[in-house]
Specification:
It contains 14 helices and 20 strands. It is an alpha+beta fold. It folds into three domains: about 210 residues, FAD-linked oxidases, C-terminal domain (Vanillyl-alcohol Oxidase, Chain A, domain 3); about 55 residues, no CATH class; about 120 residues, 2-Layer Sandwich (Uridine Diphospho-n-acetylenolpyruvylglucosamine Reductase, domain 3). The strands form five sheets. An eight-stranded antiparallel β-sheet has the order 16-13-15-14-18-19-17-20. Strand 14 and strand 15 form a beta hairpin. The longest helix has 15 residues. The radius of gyration is 22 Å and the shape is globular. The N and C termini lie far apart (about 50 Å). InterPro entries: ALO_C (IPR007173), FAD-bd_PCMH (IPR016166), FAD-bd_PCMH-like_sf (IPR036318), FAD-bd_PCMH_sub1 (IPR016167), FAD-bd_PCMH_sub2 (IPR016169), FAD_lactone_oxidase-like (IPR010031), Oxid_FAD_bind_N (IPR006094), TAT_signal (IPR006311). Keywords: FAD, Flavoprotein, Oxidoreductase. GO terms for molecular function: D-arabinono-1,4-lactone oxidase activity; FAD binding. This is FAD-binding protein.
């Protein structure tokens, strides 16, 4: 999408010199955050999430090979018991001093029931795409990153974008839940319906979902189009684009007055596979503009518009599972809230204004998506569609401003937090955001009366 980073940096430096700001040319790269010890004094190995801000030394590491083994481990192992997938959640869902359970060996497609795939939840989304494609089928939609396990994606309400598409859990028609009592419950709209409604987004607090029956769609080719334009133009046209395109999202780039737009639409044209991603180079350029011109917002915006505003659009045609998700090699921390669609743009404008006023160090783009409604009790999309706004922070930078500066904006606009992304809400606040909060709590207490699935973070979250 953009010219090489060296050219961008050189161009930005030229703008600084021309503007008389040559004395402020370099911001020293921050050091790597300090990592916890790989082994604790008792010899227990470190677990750490993808961004590095959550960690633990579990006493037991469990990797069951079957559903029966999952149920037996839940019944007998040390608490707290926490399932783990790819570690892509930024909240404290996983850390435990008790048992850490991975379902990596309980993976793959078990069978087909018509066009619905019965899938083990240890399956990674990136592996599920080609497995479904081998049968000419596909997941209707995919999230931005496909490294997650299916179980982790379901448990946190992970989603893609498009007004006609639900989050991943919205396409589940049945599931099997292993409980701390050693049972395996069959759940759907007619069997254990209350558990089905609670389990589809349950943060791993009810037990472990071992298997799901998943709706699929025909494996069609999509046309991917990526382009940059002024942010004001994107905001003015975004509603029409969400209505027109199969998938649409955009990234508002602070300190540039620009936005990167992405559409995907079905096509019969022959495949023209995606070239190597330029996302890391784009982020590198934004970081260098921050480092070089962070002292002057007008200069930073002028340089960004000159260097990034005329970039060529990106085009690709391929199967959807190859295009909808993107590699994210640059680590970050993230806060994402889901808002009533009519409040989404107002929230974005407030977020951009706050960042450009108070946080000159931010350079990551802000992601905006749209998601259809579903009826899972703790789904952020329960009882109505939502528009998501996601604010990212470079992993070396201080992310506490997300709680202090950004979260109040989201709450003022009626937002619900993404369960896997940063937020500081607890039971008293969350119960007001979710109409079925008490019903969920009733099911949770019945299935796990002693709280074996609750680590300290979840105990606070649920007021347990």
């Amino acid at each position: 999408m953009i010219s090489r980073r060296k050219a961008l940096v050189a161009g930005a430096a030229g703008v600084v010199v021309a503007g008389g700001g040559g004395v402020a040319l370099a911001v020293r790269e921050k050091p790597e955050p300090v990592s916890p010890a790989s082994v604790d004094p008792q010899g227990k190995l470190l677990w750490r999430n993808w961004s590095g801000i959550e960690s633990a030394y579990p006493a037991v590491r469990s990797a069951p090979k079957s559903e029966a083994e999952v149920a037996q481990v839940l019944k007998t192992t040390a608490a707290p018991i926490r399932p783990v997938g790819a570690g892509h959640s930024f909240t404290g869902l996983v850390p435990t001093s008790g048992t850490l359970m991975t379902l990596d060996q309980v993976a793959g497609i078990d069978r087909w029931e018509g066009d619905e795939a019965v899938v083990w939840t240890g399956t990674r989304l990136g592996a599920l795409g080609p497995a479904l494609a081998a049968k000419g089928r596909a997941m209707p939609n995919l999230p931005d990153i496909n490294k997650q396990s299916l179980g982790g994606a379901i448990g946190t309400g992970t989603h893609g974008t498009g007004t006609g598409f639900k989050a991943i859990h919205g396409d589940i028609t049945a599931l099997r839940l292993a409980t701390v009592g050693g049972e395996v419950l069959e759940c759907d709209a007619g069997r254990n319906a209350d558990v089905f409604n609670a389990a589809r987004v349950s943060l791993g607090a009810l037990g472990v979902i071992t298997q799901v029956r998943l709706k699929t769609s025909a494996n069609t080719r999509l046309h991917r189009h990526v382009w940059i334009e002024p942010l004001a133009e994107t905001i003015a046209r975004c509603e029409a684009r969400w209505a027109k395109h199969r998938n649409y999202e955009f990234y508002a780039v602070p300190f540039t007055d620009l936005a990167a737009n992405i559409t995907h639409d079905e096509t019969n044209l022959p495949a023209t596979p995606r070239t190597a991603s330029s996302d890391d180079a784009f982020l590198g350029a934004l970081k260098q503009l921050r480092n070089l011109l962070g002292f002057s917002t007008p200069l930073r915006k002028a340089a960004a518009k000159a260097l990034l505003g005329a970039t060529k659009p990106e085009e690709a045609i391929d199967e959807g599972w190859k295009l909808l998700s993107t590699e994210r090699p640059v680590r970050f921390n993230e806060m994402e809230f889901h808002l009533p669609p009519e409040n989404q743009m107002a929230a974005l404008k407030d977020v951009v204004a706050a960042i450009e006023t108070y946080r000159k160090d931010v350079f990551f783009p802000i992601e905006l998506r749209r998601i259809a409604a579903d009826d899972a009790w703790l789904s952020p999309f329960n009882r109505g569609p939502r528009g998501s706004v996601a604010v990212h922070c470079y992993y070396k930078d201080d992310y506490r401003f997300l709680f202090e500066l950004i979260q109040p904006i989201f709450l003022a606009h009626g937002g619900r937090p993404h369960w896997g992304k940063l937020h500081s809400l607890k039971a008293a606040q969350l119960s007001k955001l979710y109409p079925d909060w008490d019903a969920f709590q009733t099911v949770r207490r019945r299935l796990d009366p002693k709280g074996k699935m609750l680590n300290p973070y979840l105990r606070e979250l649920f007021g347990a």
